[in-house]
Write a structure and sequence with these properties.
about 350 residues, alpha+beta, four-stranded antiparallel beta sheet, two-stranded antiparallel ribbon, 8 helices, 10 strands, about 20% strand, protease, metal-binding
């Protein structure tokens, strides 16, 4: 895929993710009788608008972000259809609906990918062993028919769970493997096999191949569900690395970095590109639920405080908090975008 097509595809994908997110807020707001003054995709100057019966629908020039402007989101209002006059549980549902729709979108994209991949290969990758490599340390105890259910204290539901845990292995010590055989669960320790990739990076394996499950509604939905959960886990692991110092703010990517990543993924195939789009949808959904000011999770946090103490924090003060959070988020976005541009021109990114 050419650079131009990648950028166009990225804009379309971001637009769909944002539209679905704001649509979640919009639908639930309407369900609970909240007035929506404007439903916008994009930010900045308006390039198209249409006044509906109750809502102004607009498309804005900058293809980043969007909003669902509800009546009196951060202020008191005498109107019964104001957001702040709805019950706390209703407001929580409205606030969480955007991220929820992103997660659903990500899941549906994964369903498409899992189905397409299964049709190509004739089945769905399982965690049941087909054969064991004789030179692997795990060959001491594994045999065909065993089903892997855990590694290093982490549950294994799909093959990606196993690969993800092994990707964090540092090459020293042993790993713990849990598997089921004839209805019984066993736990053994082993030293992973080391394989060197083309770029010289070491890669670690248990040392076995797996069987394929038949293609049916249950296996597709199960695989898709756990792959979506794996995506959520990956987001939290990345956030954890930021907090522990294993990764810095300079390692974060903004729009330019994401487009670069999409360009790289596009070279590996259409299915990988679509899968990456699903990951972006899940990533944006999870990030929006973080309890940070200006994000949906931050607003949900204030609603929880109101439910616990039986009274809301003054709307004006809450509004100030979200405004400050919004400014900080914009500053962070500008910083990571600048970082992306620097890496682009110094060869750190390819577009």
């Amino acid at each position: 895929m050419s650079t131009f097509l990648t950028i166009i595809a990225a804009i379309i994908i971001f637009g769909i993710i944002i539209f679905v997110h704001e649509l979640g807020h919009f639908i639930t707001a309407r369900i609970f009788g909240v007035a929506v003054n404007e439903f916008a995709i994009g930010m900045g100057p308006v390039i198209y608008k249409k006044q509906g019966k109750k809502t102004l629908y607009s498309l804005r020039a900058i293809p980043m972000g969007g909003f669902c402007a509800m009546e009196a989101e951060d202020e008191e209002s005498p109107r019964p259809d104001a957001f702040t006059n709805k019950k706390p549980w209703q407001r929580m549902i409205i606030l969480a609906a955007g991220a929820g729709m992103n997660l659903i979108l990500g899941f549906l994209i994964v369903v498409i990918i899992v189905t397409a991949s299964a049709v190509q290969t004739g089945g769905i990758v399982s965690t049941t062993i087909e054969s064991v490599e004789a030179e692997s340390d795990a060959a001491r105890f594994l045999q065909p028919g065993d089903r892997i259910v855990g590694i290093n204290g982490t549950r294994v539901n799909i093959k990606r769970d196993l690969s993800f845990e092994l990707s964090m292995y540092d090459g020293t010590g042993e790993c713990e493997l849990k598997f089921r055989r004839d209805g019984e669960t066993y736990t053994e320790t082993f030293t992973p096999m080391e394989v060197t990739l083309e770029d010289g990076t070491p890669y670690y394996l248990v040392g076995f191949t797996v069987q394929q499950s038949p293609i049916n509604l249950w296996t597709v939905v199960r695989e898709s569900f756990y792959q979506t959960i794996w995506m959520v886990k990956l987001v939290f692991v990345s956030l954890g690395m930021l907090f522990t110092g294993e990764a810095g703010v300079s390692d974060m990517s903004g729009p330019v970095g994401v487009v670069s990543a999409m360009s790289t993924v596009a070279q590996t195939g259409l299915l990988d590109f679509i899968f990456f789009a699903g990951f972006l949808a899940v990533n944006i959904g999870v990030m929006n639920l973080l309890p940070l000011p200006a994000l949906d999770g931050g607003r949900i946090f204030f609603v929880l405080i109101e439910m616990i103490f039986r009274r809301p924090i003054p709307r004006e003060k809450e509004g100030y908090v979200h405004f400050i959070g919004f400014v900080l988020l914009i500053a962070l976005m500008l910083f990571v975008t600048w970082n992306d541009i620097v890496r682009l021109f110094t060869g750190g990114f390819n577009i």
